[in-house]
């Protein structure tokens, strides 16, 4: 009979399993179970059927168990079976149970002998069983047969490992007695995941099929490949008995008779057989469940705590109560307004670590993208200044730089700022709408509310965008209304004329000075619209020479064979010396990019190449005096526009922040709710989506299931009988100097005869173990300590 504590405990654990199944797979809890592991035709199915007392498992050749079978045995007054996938249907015919298992297996795996890790849950109520929960796993196979997949061995091993690697899973390692115990796949897998043997129970089947003269006594006495929980022997029905429909009750009586009459087992008859295996598993499962329940309770409580707040809100929610709908609407809109504002302030609950979002993206528009758009306005300005000066002079030849050209160009440049400013507004508006879309997902539980909120807020953004455009246009018009040349930051004009503006500075080498006159030397050059000067160094204190730009032109100089420099020359078109007695100066740069840059700067100053290639430069560009005027106006325009740029860069973010971002945030926090109420469709706004209804029901169901599971755990009796874990296996008998008995030596791994005959001290008789997990001591050979052993059931 099973212990009373076990009979109280197992039904509660089964209730716990049912409760957790209601909570869904997300709970991730692994309840204490007994997993039955063994090779094909090892007798696993027969062991399970002996527990139940009925034939209910599919049989056949090859792999028959292709899905894990979670078998719950419950002691009851009536006998029937039920499947979890067939709730409410009771099976009293166990042939129908067998057919249902086969049908459910084929439903997922088909008929190609494939396997699936999805379990079949079967519960059997019977007055002939003790309370147990077992998992029947597919038999271990090596070679695929028929149309089985080529990796069937690895699939089965992976599935078995998924069950037995759990720390709270007891392993029932089934091995036939007529095979080599040292080669048992079940024991090997068990040892891989349970090296200390704390949760492995060995089962030896087919003891009645061993060859005459051999037995498994030393295995059952835990002296060969000892396990901490020991071995239990059973005798199952043979295939002939099964085909002959031999009654299981009769088979159990035959098993009892076999052990009582067999000379090797009759002294341990009370500790072998299927009934004793049932009682042992009950007690071991009791211990295991009691040890693991505290961790279960802690895990369940943490999950329950995580769901409490949401479950309380859902439990209080009443879709048909107008007052509750109004309250929920108020809370949702207020919460959404806070979240929207947090996105811009950078104080959100979740910080994005992959991309910029919200306020960070707008900050980048303010300080990176908008300034870049302003810089691009300067393109093609030089050509426009040239045409403006020529059109102002008309047929006359102008000696002075006209003020009208400066004002015309400045106004045109200011007008061009409208484009970047409007683009700036578009970018910010787009980010605002994107942020609305991101935050609006929190209202997805109520589709009508989400759509109306999105529509109202988007319209407000568009309205504020229009106001912002008008304001920015006004700012540009204000700048166009008056050109303030008296601004303190404007370079202006001195009494002697316009201040020469520096076009370029940099190091150049004068390479055509002879060695007798000092040779090639590097100087610091400064190019303005009027002259080209060079200094001893970049401190610009000691000026070497100033060369006027009048009548100067450029000439290309071929690069020398051994030279690493890039050279160009300047010369006077009237054949005058440009420097002392030199008709030209060869100036060298360190790179081609630097050479091109200097040429471009000289072109801006009105110094053009000697020869024009291709279509040639426009004729208007060939007048040095005109080019100097162009350069002067350009410098003045650059100075004035830099003031405008600073003003625009400062005012634009402030204007957008005030008229768009802050206005929209204020609207959401103070007026959005009023506009939603004004729609007069509160009930329609608060109509839940089907997804939200399902989520709410799932949360409530999971919350109730977790509470029920905790209640079940609290009902477990503290007086449940338990037994301590057996001590670690004591293998000191291996190192004893006395030889083994002839019978044991005959079945050892080496098969050798005793090396010592009659001269060893008498072997003391060790007491018979008092339990299935006890460890016996006897004599042994030193070689068994270092060599794998072979089961005694294999005759030599």
UniProtKB/TrEMBL annotation:
Protein's UniProt name: Interferon-induced GTP-binding protein Mx
Every PH domain range: 501-607
Stretches for region Disordered: 755-796
Enzyme class: hydrolase
Primary location group: cytoplasm
Organism (species): Scophthalmus maximus (Turbot)
Residues covered by the Dynamin-type G domain: 28-294
Ranges of Polar residues composition bias in the record: 773-789
Protein's UniProt keywords contain GTP-binding: yes
GO molecular function (one): microtubule binding
Top-level taxon of the source organism: Eukaryota
Pfam families in alphabetical order: Dynamin_M, Dynamin_N, GED, PH
GO biological process, one term: receptor internalization
GO cellular component: cytoplasm; microtubule; plasma membrane; presynapse
Domain GED: 630-721
Record keywords, A-Z: Cytoplasm, Endocytosis, GTP-binding, Hydrolase, Microtubule, Motor protein, Nucleotide-binding
E.C. numbers: 3.6.5.5
Subcellular location: Cytoplasm
Entry-linked InterPro entries: Dynamin, Dynamin_GTPase, Dynamin_GTPase_CS, Dynamin_N, Dynamin_stalk, G_DYNAMIN_dom, GED, GED_dom
